[in-house]
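Predict structure. Input: SDR family NAD(P)-dependent oxidoreductase, 252 residues.
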Amino acid sequence: MDMKDTPVIITGGASGLGEATAERLTAQGAKVAILDIQMDRARDVATRIGGLAIECDVTSPDSAQDAIAQARAKHGVARVLVNCAGAGTGKRVVGKSGPMPLEDFTKVINLNLVGSFNMTRLAAADMIASDPIGEERGVILFTTSVAAYEGQIGQAAYAASKGGLVSLTIQLAREFAQFGVRVMSIAPGIFLTPLLYTASPEVQASLASSIPFPNRLGQPAEFADLASHIIGNRYLNGEVIRLDGATRLAPR
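Output follows.
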């Protein structure tokens, strides 16, 4: 899909992978709406790139529906949805203090998996009801993780949430195929995102040393590069692409 004047929605677009993708697609001519709960940061990014900042809790049906309606009113029906909103927590299922509180698990599942599904069902409905652009109507992109395949100790909630997105990729690609809507996922490895900015140089170096090549942390711009290619390559559909420098996560 050509990005020139194409309406795009990016959740979690105020920082990290989402911010880099917003910058890249805007540079290609897209009309980008940044949906986030960090509104100060979202406004800063939107001002810099000439986009639109909209407050959105992706886990809320009402908030998501309202945010998509605002983006539609400003830019038109979104033809691309990039799901970058998400978070994780490190906690063993059974730790020194006993079983993990159930809410610690469900909170991550709700944000990463249910939130992405919530946004997808609403954005896809708009895409399906619209006229095709060439041979397709839209593109939906999930941000999953290599943890979906090699979840580390303490990553039960995160791995399960990202694994759910892996499973949804081919299922939704099949379901939406008749409408010309593609569904793809990127599974990043260890990237230099806001979570790692606060880590010491020693910790960052230790993480980078586990990556075969390039022997460094991934850059958000490299995620944006792949997202851009996926959107532009119409024969990519129903697949999860690992973006990890050939790393495989150790148990801990």
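DSSP finds eight helices and nine strands in the chain.
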